[in-house]
């Protein structure tokens, strides 16, 4: 069994795509996932399974709740690597200003080469392997570097989490790993 983190895009935001986390946990457990835990109401799921396909989780949500929700999955090791690769370590002390946009696949380097950094200054963007880090100068809410901009850049729907949430998910994944470790 391995630990995975499923990141759902756009659930329980502004009254749209309502998805009660208790119902989601129960649905995923019925589907055979173990140690299913959620963090806050915005679609952060930690679970254990032999494997975890985002399409399967999306299909479960569609079948059980009638919602078409993009899902990105990372293993616990991949999420820890995302934290270790943070290109903006000075922003860790401002965890609500640092966001990670999780992409469904590799970040296309040609798109990033064409990105107009000056047009989004003072906000800063840096690519990872399968994620984009954004350091917001005054917060995400006032920035022109929005989800839509990042989605166009990547060419696919992404889902963003602030640094506080990313770190909490790493902690929850570590706890799930520890629970599965042989004693």
Write up what this structure looks like:
β6 (124-127) and β7 (131-135) form a beta hairpin. The protein has helices spanning 21-30, 54-65, 76-84, 109-114, 147-154, 163-180; strands spanning 2-8, 34-39, 44-49, 71-75, 98-102, 124-127, 131-135, 159-162. It has a 4-stranded antiparallel beta sheet, with helices on both faces. The protein has 183 residues and is an alpha+beta fold. Helices cover 34% and strands 23% of the residues. The longest helix is centred in the last third of the chain and has 18 residues, at 163-180. The two termini are 15 Å apart. It has 6 helices and 8 strands. It is globular, with a radius of gyration of 16 Å. It has 2 domains: 2-76, Alpha-Beta Plaits (2-Layer Sandwich); 79-165, no CATH class. α3 crosses α6.
Short description:
The chain is α+β, with helices and mostly antiparallel strands and 183 residues long. The protein is built from six helices and eight strands, in the order βαββαβαβαββαβα. The protein has two domains: 2-76, Alpha-Beta Plaits; 79-165, no CATH class.
Distinctive features:
single chain; 183 residues; alpha+beta; Alpha-Beta Plaits; 2 domains; four-stranded antiparallel sheet; 6 helices; 8 strands
Q: What proportion strand?
A: 15-25%
Mean pLDDT: 93
Terminal-residue CA separation: 15 Å
Main pleated-sheet profile: 4 strands, antiparallel
Total beta strands: 8
Give the neighbour order of strands across the main sheet.
2-3-1-4
The unreliable regions are none
Helix content: 25-40%
| Radius of gyration, whole Å | 16 Å
Written as H for each helix and E for each strand, in order along the chain, the element string is EHEEHEHEHEEHEH
